[in-house]
TrEMBL record:
General function of this protein: 2-oxoglutarate-dependent dioxygenase essential for auxin catabolism and maintenance of auxin homeostasis in reproductive organs. Catalyzes the irreversible oxidation of indole-3-acetic acid (IAA) to the biologically inactive 2-oxoindole-3-acetic acid (OxIAA).
UniProt keyword annotations, A-Z: Iron, Metal-binding, Oxidoreductase
Organism field: Tagetes erecta (African marigold)
Residue ranges of domain Fe2OG dioxygenase in the record: 149-254
Protein's name according to its UniProt entry: 2-oxoglutarate-dependent dioxygenase DAO
Length: 314
């Protein structure tokens, strides 16, 4: 059941004053609305990008199908009988200019569309680095010891076909957590639908707020923070008969071993999760069909590597 409430806001212009609030928000909520990011990602660019996204989804299906996966569920997905309301485009890795160009080539983008996509991704990536470094600072960890700039990213465009009265109340995306570290969402500024779960287990609506962003913490944030950061559960539901579009960017995690940061592990705060890799963890989520954070329970220390490996390979 959804209850009337609102997620916290973080003002990017009010640092370092908001540093403590940022950490507390990530611990208690695992999500927030980002305000005053326009020095990096201006409202005009957000508007231009939404127009590009809308035009890409209007392409013929045979062109959209050229947007093939690099990793599972990274490319085009058409509506299905199981999920008839949701369509996606995207690619891995948005931190790679080569991968951006491949994505644009797959969809035969115009020069204007390509330029807009590149400028948008560069701005979001800069936001990723800014927010990630603030999170590290708030945890008392040197960001250079983490190496955020070396982490891969994923880019996903979402279209929800909420056009039929029979769709109202239906699910666009079922309840899940994000598998990566940090997600930045440019949500639809006209059409409602996004809901997040509070720690009490209630879903609350994240109502449209033009020219702002929604930031979610994912499973890797929970692991790296040794359980301090909340990997927020969220979903999208149809609430009105309007097409809905959103743009999601994911800072995934280290390319190598993922484990709780050593600065956050001591006698009073023992390591909660066994080391893994992001790719192994993704496989674990897919093989077990545990997409709402439950897969992290399979990594609880002292869970043996053999147990984790068996879930990945089965």
């Amino acid at each position: 059941m959804a209850t009337k409430c609102t997620i916290p806001t973080i003002d990017l212009h009010d640092f370092p004053n908001q540093l403590s609030k940022l950490i507390t928000t990530c611990e208690d909520w695992g999500c927030f609305r980002l305000l005053n990011h326009h020095d990096i990602l201006p409202a005009t660019l957000m508007s231009e990008m939404k127009a590009v996204v809308t035009s890409l989804f209007d392409l013929p299906v045979d062109i959209k199908r050229q947007n093939v996966d690099v990793i599972t569920a990274s490319g085009y997905t058409a509506p299905t009988n199981a999920n008839p309301l949701h369509e996606t485009l995207g690619f891995y890795d948005m931190a790679s200019r080569c991968d951006i160009d491949i994505f644009c080539d797959q969809l035969d983008t115009t020069s204007h569309q390509r330029e807009t996509i590149i400028r948008y991704i560069e701005a979001v990536y800069e936001l990723f680095m800014d927010i990630a470094k603030k999170l590290a600072e708030g945890l008392g960890v040197k960001s250079e010891n983490i190496g955020f700039e070396n982490w891969p990213c994923q880019f996903r465009l979402n279209k929800y076909h909420f056009t039929s009265p029979q769709s109202v109340g239906s699910s666009g995306i079922t309840t899940h957590t994000d598998s990566g570290f940090l997600t930045i969402v440019q949500d639809d500024d006209d059409v409602n639908g996004l809901e997040v779960m509070t720690k009490s287990g209630d879903f609350i609506p994240v109502d449209p707020w033009p020219d702002t962003l929604v930031v979610n913490m994912g499973d890797m944030a929970t692991v790296l923070s040794n359980g301090r950061f909340c990997n927020v559960k969220h979903r999208v539901r149809c609430k009105e008969t309007k097409t809905r579009v959103s743009i999601a960017s994911f800072l995934l995690g280290p390319r190598g071993t993922v484990e709780s940061l050593p600065e956050l592990v001591d006698e009073d705060h023992p390591r909660k999760y066994v080391p893994t890799t992001f790719e192994d963890y993704r496989k674990l989520r897919f093989s077990t069909k545990l997409h709402a954070g439950e897969a992290l329970e399979l990594l609880y220390a002292p869970t043996s590597d053999k147990v984790v490996a068996s879930h990945i390979t089965n």
